[in-house]
Amino acid sequence: MEFKEFAFKLWKIYGGGEPKGKFARTLFFSVVSEDAEEIVANYSDVTMRSFFNGSSPISGIAKRILPYSDFDEFESSILELPEPSVQLITEAFIDSIPDITMHNYAEKISELFKEILLSAADGFVEENTDACDTENKTPRCSTVIGQQNNVIQIGDSNVNLINNGEITINL
Question: In whole angstroms, how large is the CA radius of gyration of the chain?
């Protein structure tokens, strides 16, 4: 499961009408120690909303906060939910966590959040060879670099497409 799906499922039940970006920030704050709160606070509201919507990868923030993460704190924070909310969360995550129950939901949701952050922090490089123009000896391969779908590699050069409309070309 990706962060955007995880966050959306929780937001519908647990978000209390909070703006999506603020809720994403709340999720990140809920797993970090005080030492890393500044890391989370330094991300803009627009970036947090992009994380929530899945338009920006969480790989960068995941790498930065994992050393300071305490998933027991996150688990404790969702243990305080009323029973109807617990039932809704259990139903929302049953497809992703088949053994989730109303008794173990906090532990299971916490484990899933940890897996999501670990997976995002790993990053990967994946080439789409269908887009390569090898016939003209000018490879134009679409590459995902570190789960950043806004980075395209053309030959040995990277093109970064940044959300605010700027384009940076590293040649």
Answer: 19
Contact between 121 and 14 under an 8 Å Cβ cutoff? The reply is: no
Per-domain residue ranges of the chain: 3-122, 125-170
Contact between 160 and 168 under an 8 Å Cβ cutoff? The reply is yes
Q: What's the Cα-to-Cα distance from 42 to each of 37, 64, 143, rounded to whole Å?
A: 9, 12, 28
Burial 83-118 (b: 16+ CB within 10 A, else e): eeebeebbebbeeebeebeeeebbebbbebbbebbe
Question: Two tokens at 65?
Answer: 């906060």
Look at the block and give the residue holding tokens 């990140």: 28
Average model confidence (pLDDT) for the chain?
80
98-118, pLDDT tens digit by residue? 999 999 999 999 999 999 999
Rounded Cα gap, residues 84 and 36, in angstroms = 32
